[in-house]
From TrEMBL:
Residues 10-160 form the 6-phosphogluconate dehydrogenase NADP-binding domain. GO terms for molecular function: oxidoreductase activity. This is NAD(P)-dependent oxidoreductase. Keywords: Oxidoreductase. Gene3D superfamilies: N-(1-d-carboxylethyl)-l-norvaline Dehydrogenase, domain 2, NAD(P)-binding Rossmann-like Domain. It comes from Rhodococcus daqingensis.
Length: 293
């Protein structure tokens, strides 16, 4: 991209799998890059690729205004930046954490005179810097910081700003990861069902992927139902029908000698909603039952 602002020097703290992948994309565009890692040997290869290696985190931070951190967790961010002068810095935190951790880290950074942007990376390291890989980063916090550095932040992956609340990037990140976790649970159950039969998992995987893709669009209907408050709106397969269908799923699990443990918590909530007289709704009503406190 000829429009990339390669003049903005970047300091990057953290050269784990993700940090190293990020670093290589900036080096490839000629962006001046200063790196630091707690365990120094991880910086050696990058030094050969054009990065300036700082001996300490403080030295790295002093090298430029835009400071990106990609460390293990929020605690390691606190440890790495402890006692370092952040006044006038633009701190971009690409470390995965909770919304509350991001909000507290934003307050912490502001109290030290830095602007703060939190990021939630929706990619694994091999997707970073690969056009059309689908990699992107949710950002939230200082919109001024985001706008000012948008081009250089877009080098490793796409960018999606989701609000001034510094917790929103983490919230979006974790919401998507949570949905993925539920999907992986369903996939594990499906493979367990076919595993003892003469059905090739590789062939079955294609059917599974196509089916999950076809069903994914249902999230839009659920969103419309949530926004309207009418969970019967546009319903295709109502809750009463789906709860009856659950019996077939559970009996099949029993026949195939597969534990239903990954399915039953969700089915129990569906049954509770049905028992409350909501059989004509979609499964969207289950969301109401998840609120605690
Ligand atoms: N890798 C992935 O698939 C996921 C994809 C989505 C985003 N995550 C998050 O990205 C953060 C970094 O992940 P990573 O893959 O780079 O993780 P590691 O390879 O384990 O590297 C961890 C780095 O953190 C450094 N570190 C750990 N503790 C401290 C500390 N107390 N002080 C300073 N640095 C610390 C560690 O240093 P070292 O062990 O080499 O000395 C690595 O640089 C993470 O939030 C993922 O959830 C990745």
């Amino acid at each position: 991209d000829n429009n990339i602002d390669t003049a903005t020097p970047i300091t990057l703290l953290g050269l784990g799998a993700m940090g190293t992948a990020l670093a290589r994309t900036w080096l490839a565009t000629g962006t001046p890059l200063t790196v630091w890692n707690r365990t120094p040997h991880r910086a050696q290869a990058l030094a050969g690729e054009g990065a300036t290696v700082a001996a300490t985190a403080a030295e790295a931070v002093a090298a430029g205004r835009l400071v990106v951190v990609c460390l293990l967790d929020d605690e390691s961010v606190g440890e790495a930046l402890d006692g370092i002068d952040l006044s006038g810095k633009d701190l971009v935190n690409l470390t995965t954490g909770t919304p509350a951790q991001a909000r507290a880290r934003a307050d912490w950074a502001r109290a030290r005179g830095a602007r703060f942007l939190d990021g939630g990376i929706m990619a694994v390291p091999p997707m970073i810097g690969v056009p059309d890989s689908g990699a992107y980063v949710f950002y939230s916090g200082s919109e001024e910081l985001f706008t000012e550095h948008r081009e250089v932040l877009a080098v490793p992956a796409g960018t999606t700003f989701v609000g001034a609340d510094p917790g929103f990037a983490a919230l979006h990140d974790v919401a998507l990861l949570s949905a993925m976790t539920g999907m992986f649970a369903g996939v594990a159950h499906a493979f367990a069902l076919i595993r003892r039969e003469e059905i090739a998992p590789t062939g079955f995987a294609s059917l599974l992927a196509d089916w999950l893709g076809a069903m994914a669009g249902s999230v839009h209907l659920a969103a419309e139902q949530l926004e309207s408050g009418d969970y019967t709106k546009g319903v295709v397969s109502n809750l009463a029908m789906q709860v009856a269908g659950n019996e077939t799923l559970l009996r099949t699990a029993e026949e195939q000698r597969v534990s239903p443990v990954l399915l039953t918590p969700y089915m129990a909530l569906m049954a509770r909603r049905l028992a409350a007289g909501r059989g004509d709704e979609d499964t969207t009503g289950v969301i109401d039952l998840l609120a605690v406190g």
